[in-house]
């Protein structure tokens, strides 16, 4: 009579009910529902937690982070390409780098309170891992990777349309592309007079206002910009003014 061979295999670890409820709450707050909940759990599982629970067969988020990094860069690249047709390749690259850099990702993660949901080992917890910038940035990327695997690129873009893209629209990263300062320097080099910015129109309802700004030099109009904020409209106007002045110098 054949006997069954004994094995030491164990089923993958099951999270505590309180932890699963916490992740349910997170999904409600983000208005995102995962079809495969384990992917969401994995996105928040740090390697230190896996190392302290080796017999439970948990999987850390490092591979999801790798995937999420690529998906995030693609999504942001496509958005910027469509949003700013006037930008050069170099300008798009510079702006994208500011959006997907660690400090920005940490800000996004903190706004979503991701730090509270990370599964950490005791040692990492005691040394402040929950607020460590690199760790928070990694979790944001791993979440993007998990969402992509669970629901595809369209859902990732919808998520970013709420969390990230509006910040670009209101000029949160305009310091990277500070056209107003560039224009000021260009004008000072030629000693052509003083620049003035003027709001010439406001469109749309109060909650979705579009501003139209004109920049002039010695009463000569140099450019007109549009934006969701006054700052964004001024930056766009300054960018157009720079092109106009540079073209005039070339001619």
From TrEMBL:
<feature type="active site">
    <location>
        <position position="69"/>
    </location>
</feature>
<keyword id="KW-0479">Metal-binding</keyword>
<comment type="subunit">
    <text>Homodimer.</text>
</comment>
<feature type="domain" description="RNase III">
    <location>
        <begin position="23"/>
        <end position="152"/>
    </location>
</feature>
<protein>
    <recommendedName>
        <fullName>Ribonuclease 3</fullName>
        <ecNumber>3.1.26.3</ecNumber>
    </recommendedName>
</protein>
<keyword id="KW-0963">Cytoplasm</keyword>
<dbReference type="GO" id="GO:0008033">
    <property type="term" value="P:tRNA processing"/>
</dbReference>
<keyword id="KW-0694">RNA-binding</keyword>
<keyword id="KW-0698">rRNA processing</keyword>
<dbReference type="InterPro" id="IPR011907">
    <property type="entry name" value="RNase_III"/>
</dbReference>
<feature type="binding site">
    <location>
        <position position="138"/>
    </location>
    <ligand>
        <name>Mg(2+)</name>
    </ligand>
</feature>
<dbReference type="GO" id="GO:0010468">
    <property type="term" value="P:regulation of gene expression"/>
</dbReference>
<feature type="binding site">
    <location>
        <position position="65"/>
    </location>
    <ligand>
        <name>Mg(2+)</name>
    </ligand>
</feature>
<dbReference type="InterPro" id="IPR014720">
    <property type="entry name" value="dsRBD_dom"/>
</dbReference>
<keyword id="KW-0460">Magnesium</keyword>
<feature type="active site">
    <location>
        <position position="141"/>
    </location>
</feature>
<dbReference type="GO" id="GO:0019843">
    <property type="term" value="F:rRNA binding"/>
</dbReference>
<feature type="binding site">
    <location>
        <position position="141"/>
    </location>
    <ligand>
        <name>Mg(2+)</name>
    </ligand>
</feature>
<dbReference type="GO" id="GO:0006397">
    <property type="term" value="P:mRNA processing"/>
</dbReference>
<dbReference type="GO" id="GO:0046872">
    <property type="term" value="F:metal ion binding"/>
</dbReference>
<keyword id="KW-0540">Nuclease</keyword>
<dbReference type="GO" id="GO:0003725">
    <property type="term" value="F:double-stranded RNA binding"/>
</dbReference>
<dbReference type="GO" id="GO:0006364">
    <property type="term" value="P:rRNA processing"/>
</dbReference>
<comment type="similarity">
    <text>Belongs to the ribonuclease III family.</text>
</comment>
<dbReference type="InterPro" id="IPR036389">
    <property type="entry name" value="RNase_III_sf"/>
</dbReference>
<dbReference type="GO" id="GO:0042802">
    <property type="term" value="F:identical protein binding"/>
</dbReference>
<keyword id="KW-0819">tRNA processing</keyword>
<dbReference type="InterPro" id="IPR000999">
    <property type="entry name" value="RNase_III_dom"/>
</dbReference>
<keyword id="KW-0699">rRNA-binding</keyword>
<comment type="function">
    <text>Digests double-stranded RNA. Involved in the processing of primary rRNA transcript to yield the immediate precursors to the large and small rRNAs (23S and 16S). Processes some mRNAs, and tRNAs when they are encoded in the rRNA operon. Processes pre-crRNA and tracrRNA of type II CRISPR loci if present in the organism.</text>
</comment>
<keyword id="KW-0378">Hydrolase</keyword>
<dbReference type="GO" id="GO:0005737">
    <property type="term" value="C:cytoplasm"/>
</dbReference>
<keyword id="KW-0507">mRNA processing</keyword>
<dbReference type="Pfam" id="PF14622">
    <property type="entry name" value="Ribonucleas_3_3"/>
</dbReference>
<dbReference type="Pfam" id="PF00035">
    <property type="entry name" value="dsrm"/>
</dbReference>
<dbReference type="GO" id="GO:0004525">
    <property type="term" value="F:ribonuclease III activity"/>
</dbReference>
<keyword id="KW-0255">Endonuclease</keyword>
<feature type="domain" description="DRBM">
    <location>
        <begin position="178"/>
        <end position="247"/>
    </location>
</feature>
């Amino acid at each position: 009579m054949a006997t069954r061979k004994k094995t030491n295999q164990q089923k993958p670890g099951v999270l505590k009910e309180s932890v699963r409820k916490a992740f349910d709450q997170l999904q409600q707050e983000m208005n995102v529902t995962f079809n495969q909940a384990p992917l969401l759990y994995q996105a928040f599982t740090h390697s230190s937690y896996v190392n302290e629970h080796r017999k439970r067969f948990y999987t850390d988020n490092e591979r999801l982070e790798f995937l999420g990094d690529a998906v995030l860069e693609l999504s942001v690249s496509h958005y910027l390409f469509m949003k700013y047709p006037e930008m050069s390749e170099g300008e798009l690259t510079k702006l994208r780098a500011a959006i997907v850099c660690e400090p920005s990702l940490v800000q996004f993660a903190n706004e979503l309170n991701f730090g509270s949901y990370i599964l950490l080992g005791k040692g990492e917890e005691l040394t402040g891992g929950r607020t460590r910038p690199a760790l928070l940035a990694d979790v944001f990327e791993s979440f993007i990777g998990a969402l992509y695997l669970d629901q595809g690129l369209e859902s990732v873009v919808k998520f970013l349309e709420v969390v990230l893209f509006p910040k670009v629209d209101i000029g949160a990263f305009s310091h990277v592309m500070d056209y107003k300062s560039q224009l000021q320097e260009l004008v000072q080099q030629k000693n052509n007079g003083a620049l003035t910015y003027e709001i010439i129109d406001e469109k749309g309802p109060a909650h979705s206002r579009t501003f139209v700004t004109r920049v002039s030099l010695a009463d000569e109009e140099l450019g007109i910009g549009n934006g969701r904020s006054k700052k964004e409209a001024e930056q766009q106007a300054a960018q157009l003014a720079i092109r106009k002045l540079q073209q005039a110098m070339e001619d």
